[in-house]
Automatic annotation (TrEMBL):
<protein>
    <recommendedName>
        <fullName>XRE family transcriptional regulator</fullName>
    </recommendedName>
</protein>
Amino acid sequence: MIKKPTNELMDALNQCSSASEYINKAQDYLIDSTISDYLNQLLDEKALKKSTVIKNSELNEIYGYQIFSGKRMPSRDKLISISFGMNLSLDETQALLKYAGFAPLYPKQKRDSLLIWGKNHQFSIYQINELLYTENEDTL
């Protein structure tokens, strides 16, 4: 997938007379890999080990490896946990969530605002779960 700003793709989509016209024109810009491919790409880019990320994400080891191998589709919370385990920035986390088809973190929701705050302050998974628990929100 070649990167192109979303707003440019939206403009192109709005100007097309049919969906198939847009698909044909924008083929190179559409997501063409799985979430596990994307996660493994992030591992490579950041020179991280799966085992370390899974441990730092507080995921069950078997389940974590199944996510990275593509055998399991992670939930939004599991992806957020992985983003903490990978120490992704807020922008990288938002991109990961969008790539997987989930809503990005939304600051008007209490729980999401806590997650954003933790991201911006480089919290570990342990610290963010403690904050969520203290604020009577579901932990990751």
